[in-house]
Amino acid sequence: MPRSVVKPPSKQGRKREPADSSTRVPNSPYERWTAGDPNGDAHANDIVPTVPQYERIKKIAAELFATRGYRAVGVAEIGEAVKLGRGALYYHISSKEDLLFSIVVRYIENLVVSGREALENEPDPAKRIYILSRQLMSTIFANLHEMTVCFREADCLTGHRHKVVSELHQSYQDIWEATLRDGERKKVFRSLDTVAIKGILGMYFYSFLWLKPGGKRSSNDIADVFAEMTVAIAELKPRK
Q1: Which among 83, 86, 78 has a CA at the least distance from the CA of 102?
Q2: What percentage of the chain exceeds 90 in pLDDT?
Q3: Which CATH fold topology does 29-234 show?
Q4: Residues 6+ apart with CB under 8 A from 103
Q5: Would the pTM of this model clear 0.70, i.e. be above it?
């Protein structure tokens, strides 16, 4: 009997710029960090940016970090790229690492939020795979430099910042694992080893190496190919 095909779902002022309140993970590690977590190495009274200028600095810095690597880019080079002197740049950022943290944390946190919504709203684990796939690939397509930094440079973070980002990455991976385990409980997916799940996620995470936004294939096209592969790997098959 041919394998059944799962159809894709139808379609002011100087203050630290937090994740959008409509998408913030409730009581997330990032939220605690920006509030001045007493266990962290950052505090609420750090130098804080004006939002429009800070967004411009982050976008340019993300491109530099993505193309050259975080460690290879100095503060002077960031200042030159954004056309700000050292003093003016430090008015908007507290450190190069804080800038990296701000670039990395936003997108992974938003993926956690949208992923949790998919867990709550789509009971079919196979259809949920398509939803998660489209969410992730559209985010990578729309923010390729930032997501390259998110996946490749996050280990340059230290102390509490590293802990925050690691927890968010784990929370996101847990959403995918929960979906696959849900399919196992519902007897539509077979039991997958944790290594297999990490391999599936690696297929998605390392797509930044070859993706070309604006090419012939849209983010949804690629997302649906990946989702079909994931479902094919996971689906329950009779023993021979």
Answers
A1: 78
A2: 70
A3: Tetracycline Repressor; domain 2 (1.10.357)
A4: 58, 61, 62, 65, 146, 149, 150
A5: yes
